Amino acid sequence: MALSWRRKTIVIIAVLAVGCSSTNAPKSKRQPLEGTDEQIFSADPIKKNDDPTVMMKRADSFFEKEEYPEAIIEYQHFLDLHRTHTLASYAQYKLAESHLKQIKGVDRDPDPIHKALEAFEKLEKDYPGSRYDRNAVERIAACHQLIAEVHLKVGQFYYRRDAFLAAAHRFERILMLYPEMDIAGEALYYLALTYKDMGADDWARGKLIALTEGFPNSPHAASGKKMIASLNQSRPIETIAKASNREDNRTDILFSLNGALGALPRAVSTASLATITSLSSHTK
Question: What is the model's pLDDT at position 261?
Fold first, then answer.
């Protein structure tokens, strides 16, 4: 059985980056300091500060200790100074991984998702053909999946609070950005519910048809068909009611015109009658 889009996302994100092991720092006569990153600088911190190897070890030490904000700073600093270095593609990859590791879920701050996506896309653009290409492609797809899930979660949040326009915007966003993803079927379903609750039954019907035809294996496909049948049953009644309303409006207009015409002779003043009589006599 094919994995659902949620399980696919979990599988992709769960793949851990292959870290590089740090080499031992040279022995120093001074008292050893805590932490690999501090040991690197124990010999001569000023001299070694911009050395590519030292900078990479320091960044990796932060990554291994899961201190990802610090790792991001160090990897970015390496790239700022050594963008053409042989380890530059590795630094860009680990920078992206550091952002990815800070993702807490689709119901939390989405900023790390967007930053991870941007970093992985930059890896593909600046270092094409690197050994990290395959991982980058997988993680880019995972980031897009997460972004779509964020839009869906936010849209559902707005829908539950009857903020229908805001909800519809989020669901439409999924359909615009990711029309081929399985999650688009779920977006169509909730968009149809939103339109139905707004009274836009024709729009709701259109989204439900797109759901049942484009995503027949969606868990919402069966509910979509029932909703279409329900909307189709209520449609003739609505049509008759609208026609009746139009007829009532037309009748009201006629009565108003008749009333106005009937009141016209009474509204003519004596002076007006005299004027009319005078004009009539001159024509004889």
Answer: 39
